[in-house]
Amino acid sequence: MQTGKIGVTTENIFPIIKKFLYSDHEIFLRELISNAVDATQKLKTMSSAGDFNGVIGETTIQVSVDKKKKTIKISDCGIGMTKDELDKYLNQIAFSSANDFLDKYKDQSSAIIGHFGLGFYSSFMVSDKVEVITKSYQEGAQAVKWSCDGSPEFSIEDVEKENRGTDVILYIDKESKDFLEESKIEQLLKKYCKFLPVDIAFGKDKEWKDGKMVETGKDKIINNTKPAWTLKPADLKDEDYVKFYRELYPSGDEPLFNIHLNVDYPFKLTGILYFPKIKNNIEIQKNKIQLYCNQVFVTDSVEGIVPEFLTLLHGVIDSPDIPLNVSRSYLQSDSNVKKISSHITKKVADRLGDIFKNNRDEFEKKWDNLKLFIEYGMMTDEKFYEKASKFALLKNTDERYFTFEEYEKLIKENQTDKNKTLIYLYSTNKTDQYTYIDKAKNKGYDVLLLDGQLDVHLINQLESKLKESRFVRVDSDVVDKLIEKDETRESKLSDELKDDLKSVFNVSVKSKEVFNVVIETLDEKDAPALITQSEFMRRMKEMAQTGGGMNFYGELPDSYNLVVNPNHPLVIKISEGLQAEAGASLDENNTQRKRLKDEIDFMDKEQKKKKADEIIQVEKDDLENLRKELSALENSRKDILESYGAANKVVKQIIDLALLANNMLRGEELSTFVKRSVDLL
Ligand code: ADP
């Protein structure tokens, strides 16, 4: 029997291992099984290369738990180790690599959690003692047993072992006794080993016999050694991809499409990505991609490895070229990772482009469920935008789909305004904005439906990308003004009378301080009044709500316009009524105001001719008094108009109807309106 001391610098590395990797003890199983898989694969490789001529035979890796003895055993039928190899690999290489590793990452424990690098020595995270009993594949090899109790002391002795391969036996320590539960081990095997390339057996299959579950003699294999992503795309049918999706995510909607990734150069990468149906709320959809390294599960958080928007996809990425024992921030600057990330982005865009080209019908049918993902990608990834702008679709309120280019052609003629800006009209809600959509359509305009979670942001992006284009919500102005053309409509009222109407209508919306009365000459068949909301203000508020960083706007009250149509017969009637009732005093007021204004203008001009110190105080006072007088007259004019408006039931009724059409008349105001309507009838 040989004993020795592992070449250590630290007196006792194991307490450090235990403490250090505290939160991720479970990876020991992944590490040991990976070693067993490697040893088995090596033997197969050697056999096919002619370096091993024996019979390979059974290669299933056996995992077992003995609760009484408090041990976990992992047995493989791989290449095994000779005494010298054992000494070299476990005492020197493995140990020093564990040591190096800990040295390197002492200060950044988060970097190593869950990642490779510790290998065989991670078994000491959960064990008091570890034994390795191994017999090399070489002819006439002597089996040996290595044993180490967690101090740097180890022993190696010759033993009897019938078969080729390696048994690793862990004597589980007190703090780790959870790992002696079969259910715990089964759960870990399912997590880390589900797709390993060598059969792994844990327990026996069970079946129903005479009314109870009994064990059959057959090993229960916990893994699928040939997961879909390792097969050739040509060998897989659509059903196979869906079946594999079910294997990954037993519950959940069927995916829309999939992409099979297969790269050999300049890095190795395989995988299958699925486009899930994404409806609302991006956040809960994230982190469904699983990252593997040679079929060993590593993590399901792939931030830093793929662009943010791709984390909305589901599926598997497998690459031995992603450095896993480094921190996330380092990952992002790794050149291989950068290449991988842009390759995946390109593949995803190409695949979508292909489906669009070859099967537009299918693409359109799935668009609503795909849109959020694509818009997210376009907003966050310039390269993706470039490609996606060729196949991204716009849907109009008649449920027709257009590419950006097609849509531009469609509206170019009719919806270019007098400044040569192309106006994209859109609605965010077909029901609420029905009247406005209808008006726009009657005028020959097309209206887009932009009701998605990211549409406000998309609009901003498109405005900066598309040349001389602007998006205008269909209810942000009266239809004539949505797209300003050179044509002017004749007004039936003089400017002065129109100006009076502003104050007449102002009275009833005074209580709503964020209403602004504007007089807009519309068709006599249009409504007497309607409500609009400025595109700019509304958009800023929406951006603030979806976290666009415009908090200032978020806090402003909603501000609306009350648009009054002076060509409508009812409004003309109000104006006539005003003339009849208060015409004389308004005329008198107007004449006086005109006289005052002229006087002020004259004095103002005279004084401007002089230097500042030449103007005497009396002159200044005179001017000041005239101004005060004028303002008093203006106030009294307003009073006349507003009290006329306040007493006029039709004015109130017109305003309430406009509010009602916008779903803005509620509570007490609504009930007053109903009462007033009955009175008027
Ligand atoms: P790594 O697997 O990263 O090389 P480990 O510390 O896990 O590092 O193992 C060190 C070495 O010990 C391996 O490279 C391998 O040569 C040998 N080894 C470990 N486990 C086995 C096994 N089950 N069968 C044969 N050789 C093994």
Please give a handful of descriptors for the protein shown.
Rossmann fold; 681 residues; Ribosomal Protein S5, domain 2; 4 domains; binds adenosine-5'-diphosphate; 22 strands; 21 helices; alpha+beta
Topology:
Blueprint: E1 2-5, H1 13-20, H2 27-48, E2 61-66, E3 71-76, H3 83-105, H4 109-112, E4 127-135, E5 144-148, E6 153-158, E7 165-172, H5 182-192, E8 200-209, E9 212-221, H6 238-248, E10 257-263, E11 269-275, E12 288-293, E13 296-299, E14 314-318, H7 328-333, H8 335-358, H9 360-380, H10 382-388, E15 393-395, E16 401-403, H11 404-412, E17 422-427, H12 434-442, E18 447-449, H13 455-465, E19 469-473, H14 479-482, H15 495-509, E20 515-519, E21 529-532, H16 535-545, H17 551-555, E22 560-564, H18 569-609, H19 617-647, H20 649-661, H21 667-680
Parallel strand pairs: 2-8, 12-14, 17-18, 17-19, 20-22
Antiparallel strand pairs: 1-6, 2-3, 3-7, 4-5, 4-7, 5-6, 8-9, 10-11, 11-14, 12-13, 15-16, 21-22
Bound molecules: adenosine-5'-diphosphate (ADP).
What does this structure look like?
By secondary structure, this protein is an alpha+beta fold. It has 4 domains: 2-205, Histidine kinase-like ATPase, C-terminal domain (Heat Shock Protein 90); 228-368, 2-Layer Sandwich (Ribosomal Protein S5, domain 2), CATH 3.30.230; 379-482, 3-Layer(aba) Sandwich (Rossmann fold); 495-528 and 565-680, no CATH class. Helix content is 44%, strand content 19%. The protein contains 21 helices and 22 strands. The strands form 5 sheets. It has a 9-stranded mixed β-sheet, covered by helices on one side. A 5-stranded mixed β-sheet has the order 10-11-14-12-13, with helices on both faces. Helix 15 (495-509) crosses helix 19 (617-647) and helix 18 (569-609) packs antiparallel against helix 19 (617-647). The longest helix has 41 residues, at 569-609. The termini are far apart. Adenosine-5'-diphosphate is lined by residues 31, 35-36, 39, 76, 78-81, 89-90, 93-94, 119-120, 166.
